[in-house]
Amino acid sequence: MEQYLLANVSRYQSLVQRFQPQRPTTTENKDVADCSNIVVAIRIRPILDHEILSGQVPAIFPRSESGVVDLHELKRVIRGQPTLNSSAFRVGNVFGADCPTKTLYTNLLQPLLPSVWEGGVGTLFAFGQTGSGKTHTISGLERLLAETLFDGAWTTQRKLYVSMFELAGNSAYASRAPFSILEDSFGNTQLVGAQELSIKSKSEFLELIENATSFRQTAGTEKNDGSSRSHAICRIRAANVSPGISEDGILYLIDLAGSEAARDLANHSADRLKETREINISLSILKDCIRGIASTTGTVKKGQKGPYIPFRQSTLTKVLKHVFDPSGIRNSKTAVLACINPSFLDTPATKNTLRYAHMLCSTEIKYQAAEHSPAIPKSWSNKFIRSYITKELHQAVILTCEKSGNPVISPSILAPHESGAQLLAIPLNKFIARCLRTKGVTESQAKAFHAKLWRLHIDSTRASGVGHKGEIDTIEQVPISGESVLSVTRISTRDLMSEGDLRTFKDRIRPGMVVRCNAAANFPGSSSQEKLVMILCPQNVVGKNMKDALGNEVNPSYCLEKTELTGITHQRYLCALVLSGGLADSYEVSIWRQIVVDLSSMETEVSLEYDPATRYYHIC
Ligand SMILES: Nc1ncnc2c1ncn2[C@@H]1O[C@H](COP(=O)(O)OP(=O)(O)OP(=O)(O)O)[C@@H](O)[C@H]1O
């Protein structure tokens, strides 16, 4: 088709010149909702020198009428001259080829900052086909952001913590070290094991960006020599310097990997095909989520069944949960940037990008703030939590059956200004230290009160379904570049597995997998009945002179080792232990206590959910 288009370029240009714009057609003409929480824009990159040299010409033209673009395709006909097929799309803001990144910063990124400042979540993500300018735009925006973040106000009133990470398939990496993306009991996404650095200056931030860029997986594609083969995410957490005012604000800048059309895959190796397939799967789940929120408008009310949005189906959409979760209660603002390659050879991919941009444009979904309920501690105000402490503990003293009540812990010392969610998020040792400042209160009393508050919280999340323990999501046919994936069934934090994949977890073994083992016999101090939970270590975590739990020196080749012994294959893996924590059903990951385990001792795969408040994990 490319040869045909290039051979007919003069006819194409003369047809485009004669084109008379009309109002956008029916399906593409829906009025764009004035949505306050999702802003959509497109950026058309300039046509590049090598594209001009190969005879390519632009196919997309912004109209003077704001937010509308015309896309022209040359249509092959069986007899006679090719004709022009034109479509108009209304897509919110349009940034043309001559528009500097600074204008995008002012219009898209800067407006997200006030809500992040007030404890909300701001997200800007760029999507589009490979070579359409996503990395160029996001790296430019990150540099402009560095100027703003360190100009005074932000750093005097907030502490900034930055994590830079990549998602490849369903795995997450920070500086090539794998980590897990889990959902906590507040329904928030947590990056478990990813490094978060405190950043105090522009130069530190820029250095971190450079560093992350050097780690990013890239490869040549048909359309881009330095194509990003993973989704790159910069997450900035703005923590309050003064306690108790608001939650930490979060800002995400996301540069998605580019989709590749089936016809561009011809020269790919098997590994590259697998990688492209994984990218396309995560992007098609993202598109499912976009379709899901586009199918509803208005406010999702409490108790009302929202649209089905499969955001738990990929790590990418788990990270973007706050954008897509209809039961979300955090103030979330999102800017979506569709990047466009203007060449007339790429009109099918461009049309697809524009369709999704338009779909999001017509979407208005507002999430309601959490309504106060005495049964939901995370919805409690400071006033309510203080009266709860007084009443509950007083009641416990009267009944004398609770060790949490005598003497009554001072509410003004335990929760001077915290809301229920903020009090739950205080680490256990800090919570106990605050309780002990009331004269006569004992440590066991403080722990009992903490456990009581947490029990109430966990019960409330179970009742509302937040935390999503063990329910099963099903997605139907997901189209990917002409193919489709079979329906997928999975449990929240586990691997994405295709239905019909009959492999057991032992055939899918990978670093970072969490398994339950009957390995107690190898482990000193444990009873022979005890089951251990452990995380399979990646090869590169074994340092020099490391000893395992038995005191033996760890040979790095133990990791993912496979040996033949008297005709039987032994596969032995170095694992980090997950040990029981202080509270019931709570666990700690003890990376430095390691054990070498035979595959035959592993019984099942389990998943861990991190609880940032107690710093413990729960096993699902
Ligand atoms: N606004 C722009 N002005 C000038 N050059 C641009 C612009 N946008 C992109 N480019 C150039 O186009 C090429 C492809 O851009 P980029 O790598 O950002 O694409 P991408 O969408 O991130 O691709 P992939 O998905 O394959 O990673 C690069 O050479 C880049 O310098």
UniProtKB/TrEMBL annotation:
The residues the record assigns to binding ATP are: 128-135
> Would you kindly state one Gene Ontology biological process term found in this protein's UniProt entry?
microtubule-based movement
Residues in Kinesin motor domain copies: 37-363
Annotated GO molecular function terms are: ATP binding; ATP hydrolysis activity; microtubule binding; microtubule motor activity
SUPFAM superfamilies according to UniProt: P-loop containing nucleoside triphosphate hydrolases (SSF52540)
Q: Which UniProt keywords apply?
A: ATP-binding, Motor protein, Nucleotide-binding
One annotated Gene Ontology cellular component of this protein:
kinesin complex
Family annotation (Pfam families) = Kinesin (PF00225)
Q: List the InterPro entries.
A: Kinesin-like_fam (IPR027640), Kinesin_motor_dom (IPR001752), Kinesin_motor_dom_sf (IPR036961), P-loop_NTPase (IPR027417)
The record's similarity note reads:
Belongs to the TRAFAC class myosin-kinesin ATPase superfamily. Kinesin family.
Query: This chain belongs to which protein, by name?
Result: Kinesin motor domain-containing protein
Source organism of this protein record: Penicillium concentricum
